[in-house]
Amino acid sequence: CVLCGRTDDCPEKYGEKRTYVEYNLTVHYYCLLMSSGIWQRGEEDEGVDGFLIMDIRKEVNRAAKLKCNICKKKGASIGCVAPKCKRSYHFPCGIQKECIFQFMEDFRSYCWEHKPVQKFPDQESRGTSQCTICLDLVEQLPMYAVLKSPCCKNAWFHRECLQYQALSAGIFFFRCTVCNNKDKFQKEMLRMGIHIPEKDASWELEENAYQDLLQCYQHCDIKRCLCKKGRDYNEPDSKWEIKRCQCCGSRGTHLACSSMKSWEQNWECMECRSIFAKSGKGNYSKQKKRSLAICEKTDGTTCLLEEPSPKCPRQSPGPQRNFVLQSPKIMCQNNLSPCSHLELPASNRVTMSLSPLMSNRNGSLRKKHLRKQRTEASNILKELKLQVNTKTTRLNINAENIWNSALKGFRQRNFSPTNTIEIKFTNCKNRSKTDTSAASKHRFFQLLMLHLQNSSLFEGSSAKNLSLDFQAVKENLYFEAGKMIAVSLVHGGPSPGFFSKTLFNCLVYGPENVKPALEDVADVDVAQTIKMIKYANSLSSLQSTIHDCYEFLAAAGCLRPITALCDKDMLVNDILIHHVIKRTISPLESFRQGLKTLGVLEKMQMHPDVFSSILCHKPERLSAETICDLFTIHSSSDVNKVEGADFWMGYLQDVESGESVVTLEDILLFVTGSYSIPPIGFDPEPTIKFLHIRYPVGNRLLNCLELPITETYEQFKKKMEFTIRNTLRVERE
């Protein structure tokens, strides 16, 4: 190695040793990273991972003049960053002397005297415990070779074990082996010199690592198999397709052998049926995967919702009023009324009867729960954003033709979702000086989500499902729409907020596990036909209705013999599944593929409740409390922070109550360039500074609101309203 002079090839200790014959150069990767006088000035594919060859030679010449304080040889390229410390050393010598190298930010290095140490309470017991990685004993002492978990009281590790674990797991999977904490654990380990590479886990990169798991059971176990080609014959998308038991997966049947339709997935083998029967679950055939249960409505139809806890008490009768609850899961968590009182329209809101006091309390609980879910969504999206690198892709956008210019940008050869996106509006002649890159990007995604909501790709009023647009299918536009939504979420744009619960459930659980409702039908004529069948009050009127819409039913493949009035329920169910799901199965699959961009769909399936809060609901209306919590107040020592904060909070209350000419959305736009808070949050986080200035300043580059120091509240309010109103008026013009 040209920097440390050693021939050792130990990637776990010194990083990968690379030799470049054309440059007559060999170097350890960690020696290069930690050298004090060199920076990555090139792109990743230039030189050695962005370190230019010319810069490496300069660093070698610089280090040749420095003597290592450990081995006393020349070539010490690493220096301690502690003030007034002049120690220099080679990377391997530093490891041997127990120096700390921080593989983050500025890649700082600390010598053996100034290195950071972990602090332990004096009353904490000393002794031995088990390393939770290698399971050998480890001494509970503040030593270089021993590290303690910052999130678990009794979790101790060997440094060497942790380093091997980090190299194997990578940044996405390296976490505390006891409590699974990631953020706090990684931050402390990086501080203590553990290198966490920005790569996927080694087990994810191994070719065919999960090949055995992909083998599916393919055998018909029905007593009388009807297939002439044998029990092992399987022909997908035909009556001889084999379906596996949804409970155990170790028994199968041909569709024809069990008289099943091609779209039906919920088949249980005899063994599983007997288990359900013995456990007293009653109607086992109506149980769905992922705790989805079917619940009878008062009008005889069924609705799909999450299975309530068996411990939920029934709501006692009393004074009642209608109350709308957005999430069935909240109902179950808050011990509300049983499933028999629920009704589930297309918007998937649950209507129930509660006392006025109960409804007010649960309204606030619902908001609190929704706010908590959106906080979790922000953390998940920030985790996904770690994939985004600093390489920039510029998109030239025409705001008046947002869809075509966005489509052109997303399809250009050099576009990558993992690159940082920069937006330039080509039709803006006089761009405002405050229109920063972040503000332009948020405006672009806002216009794009608005266009998608009103496009022909979706149908419905407020809660939308996918439509069937043959031209869009041909041009693969559903894939692009899914990709754009995924990119918007991860890159700091707004969420769509217009998905119906049916569409969301199809994406997360699969269309075969979803039961659509009448409100999911956007076509007025089809909805009217379904209503006529659904509300037919006699067998003759039902048969007359079916005769009138015979062609429609034949085209939909929903013709069935009607011998009793109760047959209408099955017919309505067939029509709904055909029109809402089977008819749009091709757009749905294409849309799902697009949402897989940057791993968004995978996270949706792992955290359905969290993503439902941002994909199926519009952002809640801004309040003074929301704005107040959003901004962190900073002030210099000569500023009365308390008085300034009082003026600021008083002004927010005036704006919220309508006693101002500006709105809370205007304030947010003035500071950040955005009308709403994106699901991922703002980067950097919004701050407030109180300064000796005449008028307030909105620094959109830093998301910083600089406020003037005034003697009275009236002066403060007057300056705020004058500046914000006129700034936004000029921007609009």
Automatic annotation (TrEMBL):
GO terms for cellular component: nucleus. Keywords: Metal-binding, Nucleus, Transferase, Ubl conjugation pathway, Zinc, Zinc-finger. GO terms for molecular function: ubiquitin-protein transferase activity; zinc ion binding. It comes from Nipponia nippon (Crested ibis). It comes from the Eukaryota. Signal peptide: none annotated. PANTHER family: G2_M PHASE-SPECIFIC E3 UBIQUITIN-PROTEIN LIGASE, PHD FINGER PROTEIN. Residues 1-115 form the PHD-type domain. It is found in: Nucleus. This is G2/M phase-specific E3 ubiquitin-protein ligase. It holds the Pfam family PHD_G2E3. Pathway: Protein modification; protein ubiquitination.
